[in-house]
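Need a sequence for this fold. Nothing fancy.
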């Protein structure tokens, strides 16, 4: 399963200014605070032999982990009012080198799946109506073009567009672009049914 956010192609978590979003595992596994691209042979080595042996400093990270909650949180009024500003963050951002790199990462990942007889499923998660209405059409079209090219090159891969799924409302989200536990459970059931149909 490969989940792509609508802005994924221009995003590199190793370069983000938010310390909370840096992916610790990449730094530990690769000893690199920049991006985590490696030749496909190194991916194989990490996945098959080394990666599971890395010991993460969980004791130091426990304070930053939010416990899972069964309480359903909904979008607040403040969240609704700030939605347009949050959505517009990505409107004019364009990072061609990151785009090029992320397209290659996706291609390498799909190649690795094929070589190991794994059928990759690329998907976008459902979003609120407001997010889908105001998100940059240019960015969304770009993502769809990259996915279409990937599917042509890797015919074993399949795409599920969560933005086109019916049955989701604002009650299924805790902010404009993240599902709450109710929405996540609903989407998980859809994914499960989707996978079961592929297997039959």
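Here you go.
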């Amino acid at each position: 399963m490969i989940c792509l956010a609508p802005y994924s192609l221009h995003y590199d978590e190793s370069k983000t200014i938010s310390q909370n979003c840096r992916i610790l595992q990449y730094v530990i596994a690769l000893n690199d605070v920049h991006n985590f691209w490696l030749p496909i042979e190194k991916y194989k080595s990490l996945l098959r032999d080394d990666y599971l042996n890395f010991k993460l400093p969980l004791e130091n990270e426990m304070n930053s982990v939010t416990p899972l909650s069964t309480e359903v949180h909904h979008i607040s009024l403040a969240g609704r009012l700030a939605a347009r500003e949050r959505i517009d963050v990505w409107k004019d951002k364009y990072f061609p080198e990151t785009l090029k790199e992320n397209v290659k990462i996706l291609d390498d990942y799909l190649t690795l799946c094929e070589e190991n007889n794994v059928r990759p499923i690329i998907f976008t998660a459902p979003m609120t109506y407001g997010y889908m209405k105001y998100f940059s059409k240019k960015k969304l079209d770009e993502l769809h073009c990259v996915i279409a090219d990937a599917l042509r090159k890797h015919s074993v891969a399949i795409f599920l567009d969560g933005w086109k799924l019916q049955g989701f409302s604002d009650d299924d989200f805790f902010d404009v672009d993240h599902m709450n536990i109710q929405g996540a459970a609903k989407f998980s059931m859809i994914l499960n049914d989707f996978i079961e149909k592929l297997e039959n």
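For context: Residues 140 and 173 are 20 Å apart (CA to CA).
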